[in-house]
Amino acid sequence: MVDLIKYTRKGLADAPSNPILKFSDYASKIPDVVKFTLGEPDFNTPDHIKNAAKKGIDENHSHYAPSNGTMGLRKAAADFLAQKYGQKYDPETEVLVTNGVTESIFDTVCACLNPGDIMVVPTPIFPLYMSDVNILNDGAKIVTIDTSKDGFKLTPAKLQAVLDEYGDKVRMLVMNYPTNPTGVMYSQEELDAIADVIRDKPIFALCDEIYSELNYDQPHASMEKSLHDQVVLMNGVSKAWAMTGYRIGIVCAPQAILEQIAKVHQTIVTTEPTPMQDAAEEAFKNGMNDSEPMKREFQKRRDVLYQGLTDIGFECAKPQGAFYIFAKIPAGLEQDDSKFIYDLVDKAHVAVTAGSSFALGGQGYIRFSYAVSMDQINEGLRRIKKYVEENK
């Protein structure tokens, strides 16, 4: 029998499975586990949005939508971004609807990187950006910048050093803010300074702003304001409206760039389900402040979890947005974070995510998602405190 696996795409067979999902599956089999692993809101989608999806079905919106997305959704998204953040995009030519930001990232990486190009990624960060480059396997390369000694923020000096070393091979900079896994947010002045480093250079700035509505301590800042013509902006409805299962993302970019990204989208997806687009249109159009109650609850949870972990002995960067806390494993405990999370879940029935899953700078850390109830947070803290006392 022919061993066809040898003839699949080079490198793909050796690519590791997502360790976050693998561990989450393992933890789910443990009775009464408290899970701080999943990065999705534990709230329900607002009723007016659900009704919009039902209405679309009832009105037989069951045929192909335009490939770039329904005009109603594109206009609603553009209006939302303009009103909330002052981001100006033409819904006719500069907005694309994708299968979540997951597809937005893949489309952009595929469209904008060539063999030999370098994508610069500040880490720790959600691994999807780098996974896409590895899966495409077309000769593009990744250069990471460890931000763990800089408050988990990219500095202009470290970015400039990469440009000095690699020159015009650098083609893309990835920026995610608020950041997964740390919850760190940049100020507008900090983003302006980073933008100045790549301004007027042939470098795309991939700006993932999916957590833009979940900022606690300051207004949302955006590199789009600093560097509009070089930014590929990504947003969507998954986090702010608790619509992860609806799979609607938004890509915004200058027309000439968006046209190339849209070609990838047309090839791999064609278009998004029309009733889901109806729901997303309703979210952007009439749900301008829907996230406020959820954000207030997340902020309360953040404060309780942050204080509880600090009291136990964890060193944490206090998150300014999203719903994650990135905590350093206390001295005296297992410092290999990949081993630590399995020991913690086996002994204490508490599941967290290994920091090394988020690349350079994440080793020795663990990520908590506080998209869980306050009761679960308090119970998790109780179990962790007992675990630390028994294992130090």
UniProtKB/TrEMBL annotation:
UniProtKB keywords: Aminotransferase, Pyridoxal phosphate, Transferase
Transmembrane residue ranges: none
Domain called Aminotransferase class I/classII large: residue spans: 32-384
Gene3D superfamilies (UniProt xref): Aspartate Aminotransferase, domain 1 (3.90.1150.10), Type I PLP-dependent aspartate aminotransferase-like (Major domain) (3.40.640.10)
Molecular-function annotations in GO: transaminase activity
Its EC number(s): 2.6.1.-
InterPro entries xrefs: Aminotransferase_I/II_large (IPR004839), AspAT/PAT-like (IPR050596), NHTrfase_class1_PyrdxlP-BS (IPR004838), PyrdxlP-dep_Trfase (IPR015424), PyrdxlP-dep_Trfase_major (IPR015421), PyrdxlP-dep_Trfase_small (IPR015422)
UniProt-listed PROSITE patterns: AA_TRANSFER_CLASS_1 (PS00105)
Essential cofactor(s): pyridoxal 5'-phosphate
Family per similarity comment: Belongs to the class-I pyridoxal-phosphate-dependent aminotransferase family.
Record-linked PANTHER family: AMINOTRANSFERASE (PTHR46383:SF4), ASPARTATE AMINOTRANSFERASE (PTHR46383)
Protein name per the record: Aminotransferase
Source organism (scientific name): Lactobacillus panisapium
Taxonomic placement: Bacteria, Bacillati, Bacillota, Bacilli, Lactobacillales
